[in-house]
Amino acid sequence: MSSAVRLFIIGDSDQVYRLPAARYARMLRHPANYPITSLANRRVRCAEAVVELRSRKAVRVVRMLFWNATFDEHGVRHQGPHCSTGVASGTDLWKPAAQNAATCVMWGSLKTNVAYCPECCTSLRKMDLSAGF
Ligand SMILES: [Zn+2]
Fold it and tell me: Which of 75, 97, 77, 78 is nearest to 88 (CA)?
């Protein structure tokens, strides 16, 4: 058995558009180089289907995932700012100044930061929740 990933964007009127997986992978690696200008300033619903292939044809859906994706004014997918460490208080987080100042990898997908800030490191540590929160 082999499998493949199919990606879809669901439009405002519930139209379904297929997004080629190779293009999506390029968008994740280099978002600014692969904008979707028709989605500029929009938040859209997305779906990922892992399908089972037989003779290169999809015969069964193995798993479905759903999420929302936000695109900036250029049609670039961006999932930040999740962590604004390094950004001065009062800075508009959606402006380039914030983008340039952010220092944590959790800022978002357009940054090339590779290190977590101390606060995110704390959040990422294993926590024993067996006794509740
Ligand atoms: Zn952080």
Answer: 97
Longest dimension (CA), the chain: 56
pTM for the full model?
0.56
Per-residue model confidence (pLDDT) at position 23? 84
Q: What pLDDT score was predicted for residue 118?
A: 85
**pLDDT less than 50: residues of the chain:** none
Residue 6 alpha carbon to ligand 1 centre in Å: 31
| Alpha-carbon gap, residue 8 to 20, rounded angstroms | 8
d(CA 13, CA 69): 16
What is the model's pLDDT at position 128?
Answer: 65
What is the structure's pLDDT at 22? 85
Ion ligand 1 nearby residues (CB, 5 A)? 83, 85, 104, 106, 117, 120
Q: How far is the CA of 59 from the centre of ligand 1 (A)?
A: 42
Q: How crowded is residue 82: how many other Cβ atoms within 10 Å of its Cβ?
A: 13
The single-letter code of the amino acid at 94 is: W
Nearest to 107 by CA among 68, 80, 69, 88: 80
- Going by C-alpha positions, the residue among 99, 55, 101 that lies closest to residue 81 is 99
